[in-house]
Amino acid sequence: MKLAIRITDNEQGGYTAVCPSLPGCRSMGGTREEAREKLNEAILGYVASLNNFVPENLGPELVEA
Predict the structure, then answer these.
(1) Cα–Cα distance, 46 to 52 (Å, whole number)
(2) Separation CA 25–CA 45 (nearest Å)
(3) Burial (0-12, 13-18, 19+ Cβ within 10 Å), 63
């Protein structure tokens, strides 16, 4: 499964990462990579909460848009 994400500069410093396909799924980090890693965890949690499980084929394949 591929999901598009957006990582933008945060006004307070650092970065904000969002996944537009999953409403409310966002994270922040001091670096782009940290924001991306935290968003990956948030996406896994989001999907798990919807389905009560994490699919095996849902890996860290995020596509930055």
Answers:
(1) 10
(2) 9
(3) exposed
**Buried b / exposed e across 6-40, counting CB within 10 Å, b at 16+?**
ebeeeeeeebbbbbeebeebbbebeeeeebbbbbb
pTM of the model: 0.74
The model's pLDDT over 7-26, given as tens digits with 9 standing for 90+, comes to 999 988 999 999 999 999 99
For residue 50, pLDDT over 70 is answered with: yes
Residue at token pair 């006004």: 11
